[in-house]
Amino acid sequence: MLPPTTTAITGAPLLRRPLLSRLLATGLGLALCAGAAAQGRPQLNLPRVELQAGMHRIDAQVAVSAQERQVGLMHRRDMPMHEGMLFVFEQAATQCFWMRNTLLPLTAAFVADDGTIVNLADMQPLSEASHCSTQPVRFVLEMNQGWFAKRGLKAGSKLSGRPFASR
Fold it and tell me: What's the pLDDT tens digit per position in 8-51?
């Protein structure tokens, strides 16, 4: 007799229900993101995290999967000043961003694991010009263009919050 975690037809392991649920949810999430991007709709329902830049609070959507990162802030017509998007990569590398299908002028902060801003790049709407980190990073925070400058934040400034707490 086969163990209870294998199928009778192939003998292949069955996915346990919690794992299956997570995989199905992830697949559904990817399909929804891909559908939104293909139909020119912004992705507005990503998980959020609160970050701090000194005394300034940031409500950031978190883009973790490759599809979420690819869609990013495309197709958004507006974004409240205290909101942004935090892109999270699996490992530190030179990260490069462009603005295809992105309607808002943005500033990208390339951020080290400890929350230190490595460099900032102002990016123009609908441009395919590449903007890259000056050293390997795992995090990129996009905010409305001018947000960092208005608050005196620049390379060397520090962000804090859950993504940077254990680093």
Answer: 333 444 333 343 334 334 444 444 444 445 568 999 999 999 99
In which order are the strands placed within the sheet that holds 48-53?
A: 117-123, 106-111, 137-144, 83-93, 56-63, 48-53, 160-161
What digits encode the pLDDT tens for the residues 91-149? 999 999 999 999 999 999 999 999 999 999 999 999 999 999 999 999 999 999 999 99
| Amino acid, single-letter form, for residue 71 | V
Rounded CA separation 8/45 (Å): 39
In the chain, the amino acid numbered 41 is R
Are residues 48 and 64 in contact, defined by beta-carbon separation less than 8 angstroms? no
Give the global pTM.
Answer: 0.77
b/e string for 23-53 if b means 16 or more Cβ within 10 A?
eeeeeebeeebeebbeeeebbeebeeeebeb
* Beta-bridge mates of residue 107: 122, 143
Strand partners, 106: 123, 144
Report yes or no: 124 and 13 within 8 Å, Cβ to Cβ: no
Strands (DSSP E) found in the chain: 48-53, 56-63, 83-93, 96-97, 106-111, 117-123, 131-132, 137-144, 160-161
